[in-house]
Design a protein that fits this description.
Chain lengths: ~220, ~220
């Protein structure tokens, strides 16, 4: 048995790489959980593409202002130093390269950093791109948080994405439930791997060749 | 004397006709001009092209408008309904009864900005190499590829703001601004419904949308 990470632990691991004094946009799903695990001594400004820079903690029930909602539709508060803007202001931050890092979910990622996260080609659901392509093209760094395989065990780390692409070559790091993997010009490079999982077993769950960093370490997270 | 206040929704929508293009502000339901949209349905106009970020949250004015069969096409960044049931838009789209142009959200905002500022279009790296770049001119500047995106304008823009004055100046609250200020610039006639309508001028330091862009202001207390 390997020590597969749960959603909170994946978010925790990604949060450890968020630098002090950085501007960050978190996608819906596991990425928004990253906000809960950013080390306390680091100060980070969270941006939401509907016009909030500096999202604070979820407000208490009696302190909810119904007009303060993030891009995922959750009630939020404003952090000290935060500000409000319109969609033009918010996307100037995003496409102009002012967001240091965006953490997004994805269906598939290729070793060269191509990734797909906007169109699952569902039979009865309309397509939704939202700000995914703008974040992918504009943020200084794009990192993904995703399960290593589908529920059916199919690899999500692949040689070539079969789902419609969000951007070409923009993902640089992937946090999965089994590993921390970089996407590079020469393909996937594994930085960390969970305890109890062999390199061969990880490779068998991946759809493209894996290289292992010289200093490849054990991926551990606290109980969460 | 400048006095852009109107007394009724019918007066606010005067001149709207079949085949018009209408911009609707709002991110999810925050900032959506639902009173104006419900009045628009009453006028009976049809074959509308709607420019809005989404295709209508359950129970929203836009969802009712689509359900009433008045919309020929939607230009948006999200065409997905909420929950397991199909939205009125999804039913119409999968039934081949409505058109869809899906646009990345930052590109969507910037196309409206270009329309309001008198530019024909702009080159953006967003969506390069994806399905949403299909048919668009691609051009290299420096070491990066860009696609040409063209301006969006409309016959009418409808927005909701927190506060307005008789000059047409508007102030938004929380994340309510979103697409409102930019849509105001890009339409032949811009109509705002506001929670508070004042005869005396708003504080000029705090105005978010300038009266020069706003033609009619309707007092509609309550709502989001």
């Amino acid at each position: 048995m390997s020590n597969r990470l749960n959603r909170n632990q994946m978010a925790w691991r990604a949060a450890q790489d968020v630098a002090d004094r950085s501007y960050v946009n978190l996608g819906i799903g596991i990425p928004v959980l990253v906000a809960n695990y950013i080390p306390g001594e680091r100060s980070v400004m969270l941006q939401s593409e509907n016009g909030i820079l500096g999202i604070g903690p979820a407000p208490a029930k009696d302190e909810i202002d119904p007009y303060f909602v993030d891009a995922g539709g959750q009630h939020v508060s404003l952090a000290p130093g935060g500000m409000l803007t319109d969609s033009i202001g918010a996307f100037t931050m995003i496409t102009g390269g002012h967001i240091d890092v965006t953490l997004l979910g994805a269906f598939q990622v290729a070793g060269n950093g191509d990734f797909a996260n906007w169109n699952a080609l569902l039979a009865n659901k309309g397509p939704l791109v939202g700000g995914a392509m703008d974040l992918a093209a504009g943020a200084r760094e794009v990192r993904l948080i995703m399960a290593h395989t589908t529920r059916e065990g199919e690899p999500r780390l692949v040689g070539k994405c079969s789902y419609p692409l969000t951007a070409r070559g923009r993902a640089s790091r992937i946090y999965t439930d089994l590993a921390v993997v970089d996407a590079t010009a020469s393909g996937f490079v594994v930085r960390e791997i969970v305890e109890g999982m062999s390199r061969d077993a990880l490779a068998a769950k991946s759809g493209a060749p894996l290289a292992f960093a010289d200093d490849c370490r054990t991926l551990t997270a606290p109980e969460l | 004397m400048f006095d852009k206040r109107v007394q009724s929704a019918a007066e606010a929508l005067a001149g709207l006709k079949d085949g018009d293009t209408v911009m609707l502000s709002g991110f999810q339901r925050i900032g959506a001009p639902d009173t104006l949209i419900m009045a628009l349905i009453e006028t009976g106009v049809k074959d509308l092209t709607i420019i809005a970020n989404g295709t209508g949250h359950p129970g929203s004015g836009l969802a009712h408008l689509v359900e009433a069969g008045r919309v020929a096409k939607v230009i948006c960044s999200s065409a997905r309904g909420r929950g397991s049931e199909m939205s009125p838009f999804e039913k119409a789209w999968f039934g081949g009864k409505i058109g869809l142009e899906l646009v990345p959200q930052g590109t969507f905002a910037e196309r409206i900005r270009a329309g309001g500022a008198g530019h024909a279009g702009f080159y953006t790296p967003t969506a390069v190499g994806t399905d949403l770049a299909a048919g668009k001119e691609e051009r290299r500047f420096g070491d990066r590829d860009y696609i040409l995106e063209t301006a969006l304008t409309a016959d009418f823009a409808m927005l909701r703001a927190e506060r307005g004055d008789r000059f047409g100046n508007l102030i938004f609250h929380g994340s309510q601004a979103n697409f409102g200020p930019v849509m105001a610039t890009a339409a032949e006639i811009t109509v705002a419904e506001v929670n508070h309508l004042e005869e005396s001028p708003l504080d000029p330091h705090g105005v978010h949308a300038a009266g020069i862009f706003v033609d009619r202001v309707l007092h509609v207390p309550g709502g989001a």
